[in-house]
Amino acid sequence: MQKILYVEDDLSLIDGLQYTLESSGYAVDNARTVKEALSLFRRSHYDLLLLDVTLPDGTGFDVCKEVRSSSTIPIIFLTASDQEISIVKGLDMGGDDYITKPFKLNELLSRIKALLRRSLQFSKAEAILEANGIRVDTTERLVWKNGEPVDLPLVEYKLLCLFMQNPNHLMPREMILDRMWDGNGNFVDDNTLSVYIRRLRNKVEDTPNAPKYLLTERVDGYKWVVEGGRIYVQVWERNKDAVTRHFRCLPRFLSSGRRACHTSGKKFSAGIIAP
């Protein structure tokens, strides 16, 4: 059973939402203060955090900041403010999603299910992605830039993987929203995607204000540009020792006009994707 830490001090909301979550099959712990939330988080294992922004001894941002120092657990903010500055702050602190009060319970449940599903998918993935000095080990959900570790919350991480799996191809905003939110892109404010793109650029680009790799294309989409026509290889291993190889020149493959091919062996399967 998946377990949620629900951080909320409003008694009029706690019982109803906790009952709804438990009726939907989740185990739920409730904390009403920052201190209590961090104490519970350190003592137990949780699959998702549901954080109210306003708390008696601080804010949900305080909880998020502390949690993000040691964990990539999915985090959803509950906020009474629909002001962009509050939403952006929550996402910049490491939140994966937000929902504005008052909200529909079915919408919140859909967001929780989608976020948990994505988290589970990435925890099971076995692949290495590498381009432009960025390396992603999806077996361990780790990211490096030029050999240095990069901390990415789940949504930024999934965005990066999506771009790296589709190099040099225009990704319309609508397509990204559908991929990122499992077909429920209409739940997400369009500005939210821009926030995530900006945050991702700040972490993967050398000069975020003049990006070389993650480019805005024709206003309505984005493109991950791979340097030097490099081809990257994803390798899925049946053991934990994943291997990635780079090929700068595969004339036969490139002249075939194909974007991808696949091969497999006794201990591995590999897919090649051309830019």
In short:
With 275 residues, the protein is α+β, with helices and mostly antiparallel strands. Helices cover 36% and strands 27% of the residues. A hairpin with an 8-residue loop joins strand 15 (231-237) and strand 16 (246-247).
What would you note in describing this structure?
The chain is of the alpha+beta class. The protein has 2 domains: 120 residues, Response regulator (Rossmann fold, 3-Layer(aba) Sandwich); 151 residues, Orthogonal Bundle (Arc Repressor Mutant, subunit A). 36% of the residues lie in helices and 27% in strands. It is built from 9 helices and 18 strands. The protein has a 5-stranded parallel sheet with strand order 2-1-3-6-7, sandwiched between helices. α2 packs parallel to α3 and α4 runs parallel beside α8. The radius of gyration is 20 Å and the shape is globular. The N and C termini lie far apart (41 Å).
Keywords:
single chain; 275 residues; alpha+beta; Rossmann fold; Arc Repressor Mutant, subunit A; 2 domains; five-stranded parallel sheet; four-stranded antiparallel sheet; 27% strand; globular
Reconstruct the topology from this structure.
Blueprint: E1 3-7, H1 11-23, E2 27-31, H2 34-43, E3 48-52, E4 54-55, E5 58-59, H3 60-68, E6 75-79, H4 84-92, E7 97-100, H5 105-124, E8 128-131, E9 134-137, E10 142-145, E11 148-150, H6 154-164, E12 171-172, H7 173-180, H8 190-204, E13 214-217, E14 221-224, E15 231-237, E16 246-247, H9 251-255, E17 260-264, E18 268-273
Parallel strand pairs: 1-2, 1-3, 3-6, 6-7
Antiparallel strand pairs: 4-5, 8-9, 9-10, 10-11, 12-14, 13-14, 15-16, 15-18, 17-18
Helix pairs in contact: 2-3, 4-8, 6-8
